[in-house]
Amino acid sequence: MCVAAILRQQPRGAFLGSKAIVELAPNPLTWAGVPGNPDKMEQEQMDEFKQLQNEAMLRLRAGANRRGFVRGVQASVLPSFDNCRTYELMFPAKLAKAPQSQRPASAWNEPSLAVRTLWRRSTDAEKFSDPVVRLKHGVGMRLQPTIEDLDVNLDTESVSALLSRASELTVPPHILNYTFGLDGTGYELVFGQLFVQSRFQWWCQAPAPWEPLSVLLQEIEMMVEGAIQARQKPL
């Protein structure tokens, strides 16, 4: 369920050189809920859980670093009360850095890489279910978020085709009518690298002009999850 309201307001946004940042949803770090019954959670525990949640989100957004690979896109699915996850599609570095006309044909035979990073919110929330349970995890010990990474190979041509289609999308960076939510799921798409990067973020349902981005995010999720399931299937 998504509790939302319609606003008419200019989105938060900034353009720094060739890096475009467009953010339409409230920051999940402050809007994401605390699982369980907040009334039964001591204020100190709630503050500690929110701090842990902030750290988890920062780690998800920071992404993975894999030697020999360059990230092309990161897709994030950030539910308010469930486990959060990001999906990153990475090219072999020698393929990604070479101009299109100079890419050797043999490089296309090398697999690309997908990384799924998962924050197990439910596991961490259980540690704060009551003060006694919290004490079992250490007195005065700062808890770290439960983060899991999983790598899987992808066909390079398939990844390249997906990003080629993404490069042809035409979407407006300025959305006048958008939603914010008290619960639900936030979504993020980040294209590119440090020097040329674009970020799109929305809450629950993408604005109509951004529907192609929502479809693309779902396709990325299905591609990575499908590859993971195929790898885990017994022979």
Task: Give a structural overview.
The chain is an alpha+beta fold and 235 residues long. Helices cover 31% and strands 31% of the residues. It has an 8-stranded mixed β-sheet. A two-stranded antiparallel sheet has the order 1-8. The two termini are 39 Å apart.
Gyration radius over CA: 19 Å
Order of helices and strands: EEEHHEEHEHHEHEEEH
Shape: globular
Strand content: 25-35%
What structural class should be given to the helix and strand makeup?
A: alpha+beta
Instruction: Give the terminus-to-terminus CA distance.
Output: 39 Å
Query: How can the largest sheet be summarized?
Result: 8 strands, mixed
Mean pLDDT: 80
Order of strands, main sheet, comes to 2-3-10-9-4-5-6-7
Q: Count the DSSP helices.
A: 7
Helix content: 25-40%
**Low-pLDDT sequence parts:** 3-34
Please tally the β strands and state the result. Answer: 10
